[in-house]
Inverse folding.
């Protein structure tokens, strides 16, 4: 392998190889690598800092656009380590010829989400590339947040017996984007793109071991990462998986698996079994998390961590880390 | 104007118009807009946070590459508000087909500059776009630093009588990049790309009113921004301007003005006249700042802030904010 491949940008095995290549080279200047956000302590406070670039095609879609996605994505990376998002930076990369009316729509989405979530844009940057050097608009956001519950939540903290919860239906965002790209009418389907700041009180109050948003690579990929980080096997219950009929339809036509489709406003929570019912009760009180469900469990420690699916017919299917990306430029 | 133009990404008047368009739309969710870095106070400490994207052509050049540029550029934005850089995020945007050997060189530069300046990469992101959707490699960095001298340094603080210093020769980076693009042999010329962390002790010790690195748009453009922010007129002395012979030659051939060429490792310092000699003495003690000079003065308050040049022949030439960018994709 001598060049970057499209699959290097996905959520799968090649992406992990590229990440390992890069982190190997950066080695001694890295602060931490395990979580979606970097975490550190300064002046007696625990902080989290994160960055994400958004290069989605198409940039506008039912339920959101690249602006909303950029703000929510970075907010969510902070929330997933139990941090209250405070400040965001916003860097725009624009192609010569990009419509100012479209830019206005995108900025209005940024503003709306920033205000809704009580964060400030603290610094920005705009670069323009010549026509053909960049496809439309790319956005990078970086975020700073204050961690509210120290390091009690982390990718390494899943334990045998733990339950896996999801805060809503799977793959709405990924399914929608793939439908749009193929020219299908997505019907009533909208992206689940949303900020997950509503989970912060639960992160503080309950004994949640892991929180992760299943973006690129979807639920199966992110659970593989958690399984690997914690050294455990995970079993998902197919009959419990919440998938909308529209997403099922898109997956059937395009040969996709909703377990590998990106969500942009859902979280996976891994918690002690005795906490699961109380957490679900709390989630169900909030409209945005009304479709939350228990979808699986951590079955045991493992030297070779795996994620499996207990199928409706009682079989077991391995859910491997994908090699290739199903859906490039999804977020 | 209904679409983004290449000049919107430069350092000139169109860039300011685009910035005003964007900040107007973001309005209530902006923390601050005056400086290169956003500044805020949390847990009793003054912080600065900044972001910058780098989309330079060519990505490798004598004296640096896009990796070095990305780390130094964000470090410098922090240093310019008197902040000690602590943490950086690093987001890579790669084109399918980009060489992994080139990526390795870029990451080695990132590591070298990070270690040299005592900063940590705290979070990262990698996205890949399909061939033709992105030109090679773009990098975004965001940085967090601790401000060491409160708000005593700021773009609004230039006062009549103040002197303008520059910490080295003008336009090396911009001149070099333009020479390379036109297939010239740049001879011994190297980019001035460097981190300016060495200025931090001076920022703490001396009465410096403004610090800015003259990147996009060069010395003339950045001084226009300072003049406007402080409501003052600035006069530069042509005979004092440090320009290398190689840069002069490139400018003559290509019809460029070194006053408008980007530097990537120089700072403009605006200070009280009685401090100037002591600051220069301190600068000259350090090899990296050995070519520092006094190059002009703040002549008075002004309702219509202007930057002028006192030419070698005794004439005065206005140095306006440029409308168009001389050198797109320069950093």
């Amino acid at each position: 392998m001598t060049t970057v491949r499209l699959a290097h940008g996905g959520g799968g095995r090649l992406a992990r190889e590229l990440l390992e290549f890069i982190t190997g080279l950066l080695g001694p200047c890295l602060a931490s690598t395990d979580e979606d956000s970097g975490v550190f302590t300064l002046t007696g406070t625990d902080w989290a800092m994160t960055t994400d670039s958004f290069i989605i095609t198409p940039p506008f879609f039912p339920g959101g656009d690249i602006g909303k996605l950029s703000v929510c994505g970075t907010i969510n990376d902070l929330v997933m380590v139990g941090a209250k998002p405070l400040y965001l930076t916003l860097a725009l990369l624009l192609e010569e010829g990009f419509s100012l009316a479209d830019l206005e729509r995108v900025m209005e989405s940024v503003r709306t989400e920033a205000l809704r979530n009580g964060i400030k844009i603290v610094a920005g940057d705009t670069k323009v590339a010549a026509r053909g050097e960049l496809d439309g608009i790319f956005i990078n956001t970086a975020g700073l947040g204050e961690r509210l519950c120290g390091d009690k939540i982390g990718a390494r903290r899943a334990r045998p017996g733990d339950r896996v919860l999801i805060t809503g239906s799977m793959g709405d965002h990924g399914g929608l984007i793939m439908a749009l790209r193929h020219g299908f009418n997505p019907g009533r389907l909208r992206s689940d793109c949303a900020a997950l700041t509503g989970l912060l009180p639960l992160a503080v109050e309950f004994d949640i071991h892991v929180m992760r948003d299943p973006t690129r690579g979807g639920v199966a990929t992110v659970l593989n990462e958690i399984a690997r980080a914690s050294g455990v096997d995970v079993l998902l219950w197919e009959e419990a998986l919440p998938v909308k009929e529209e997403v099922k339809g898109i997956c059937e036509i395009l040969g996709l698996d909703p377990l590998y489709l990106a969500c942009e406003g859902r979280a996976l929570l891994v918690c002690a079994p005795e906490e699961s019912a109380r957490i679900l009760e709390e989630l169900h009180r909030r409209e945005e998390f009304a479709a939350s469900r228990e979808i699986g469990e951590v079955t045991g420690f493992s030297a070779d961590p795996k994620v499996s699916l207990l199928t409706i017919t009682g079989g077991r299917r391995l859910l491997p880390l994908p090699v290739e990306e199903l859906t490039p430029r999804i977020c």
